[in-house]
Design a protein that fits this description.
Elements lengths: L5 E6 L6 H9 L16 E13 L2 E12 L9 H5 L4 E7 L3 H17 L8 E6 L20 E5 L5 H21 L1
Parallel strand pairs: 1-3, 1-4, 4-5, 5-6
Antiparallel strand pairs: 2-3
Length: 180
């Protein structure tokens, strides 16, 4: 089985930590150096390789093209281009964005997953937590997300867990794409 590149969008409300997650997964930056977040202007494409992905008992090297998308609606005119050829969507929200997250996540899911004809298995929700006490209950996502994997992410204490969760998501994504 051969994949040229896996195109994954990472999108969510402004200030939810999408770029921090993208940087961490791609090992683009040391989290200690991250500093003050700067809003992404439009989109930023990060390319990296996952060297040991186990799919159906085969070890694969997977090239990832992660599109770190701005959550600012002023870039909405770019959305059709972002969605073109997408194979997976990571929706990110956080406690910072909990007040707008439910409605915003529904809108993003509808546009980037449903209208792109992706399945719920091709999507994952990363809830970017500041501490271990936070959970998804504060989000109150709609029933639309009942079939979507939801993962709590804490970059300060659980970065390795995030890498495992991401690798599992990529495995599931490849299996889903190959069934289609």
């Amino acid at each position: 089985m051969h994949l040229d590149k896996l195109k994954i969008l990472i999108i969510g409300p402004c200030d939810s930590g999408k770029t921090c997650i993208a940087n961490y997964l791609s090992e683009s930056t040391n989290m200690d150096e991250a500093g003050v977040p700067r809003p992404t202007q439009g989109v930023r494409i990060v390319e990296f390789e996952l060297p040991h992905v186990n799919v159906n008992d085969k070890q694969l090297k997977v090239d990832i093209e992660m599109w770190d998308c701005s959550g600012d609606h002023k870039f909405e005119s770019c959305w059709p281009s972002l969605r073109l050829g997408v194979q997976g969507v990571i929706l990110v929200c956080s406690s910072n964005t909990a007040n707008v997250a439910a409605r915003e996540m529904e809108l993003l899911y509808n546009y980037f997953v449903s209208q792109a004809k992706l399945t719920p298995k091709q999507c994952v929700v990363f809830y970017n937590c500041e501490d271990d006490q936070e959970d998804f209950d504060s989000l109150s996502l709609s029933p639309t997300f009942s079939k979507v994997s939801q993962v709590a992410v804490n970059l300060k204490t659980g970065g390795n867990r995030l890498k495992i969760d991401f690798s599992n998501y990529v495995t599931s994504l490849i299996q889903t794409i190959n069934k289609v």
